[in-house]
């Protein structure tokens, strides 16, 4: 291998999953709640998730890929603060609601 064959600018991400002895039980439990949601009309089942500290920034324009060249992604950007994303899924109706607001320190 030649030294020029190394490409330190290219990378990929992966996640090492931690072993969980109750994983299958948890998955079965959640799936059964969702599967039975249509039969439980007296109480709505809503699944919520919150993503705090989402960076809000404007990227510079990237350069498109061409033959023998990958896409060139500009690494500089202008930061415009952080925001919070809150999403709720109504399981029975399969409807998703989302709300974006200021960072969690400033309630939306």
Mean pLDDT over all positions: 79
Number of strands: 3
Biggest sheet descriptor: 3 strands, antiparallel
Oligomer: single chain
Span of the ends, CA to CA = 55 Å
Q: What is the string of SSEs from the N terminus onward? A: HEEE
Q: Which runs of at least 5 residues are low in confidence (pLDDT < 50)?
A: none
SSE order and pairing:
Layout: H1 23-35, E1 46-59, E2 77-90, E3 95-102
TL;DR of this structure?
Helix content is 12%, strand content 33%. With 108 residues, it is mainly beta.
Walkthrough of the structure:
The chain has 108 residues and is mostly beta strands. The protein has one helix spanning 23-35; strands at 46-59, 77-90, 95-102. The longest helix is centred in the first third of the chain and has 13 residues, at 23-35. The termini are far apart.
Q: Which key phrases capture this entry?
A:
108 residues; extended; 3-stranded antiparallel beta sheet; mainly beta
């Amino acid at each position: 291998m030649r030294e020029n064959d190394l490409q330190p600018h290219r990378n990929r991400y992966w996640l090492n999953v931690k072993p969980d002895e109750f994983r299958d039980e948890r998955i079965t439990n959640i799936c059964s709640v969702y599967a039975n949601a249509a039969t439980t009309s007296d109480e709505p089942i809503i699944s919520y998730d919150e993503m705090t500290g989402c960076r809000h920034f404007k990227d510079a324009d990237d350069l498109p890929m061409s033959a023998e060249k990958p896409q060139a992604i500009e690494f500089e950007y202008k930061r415009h603060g952080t925001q919070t994303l809150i999403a709720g899924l109504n399981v029975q109706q399969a409807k998703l609601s989302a709300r974006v607001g200021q960072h969690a320190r400033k309630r939306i």
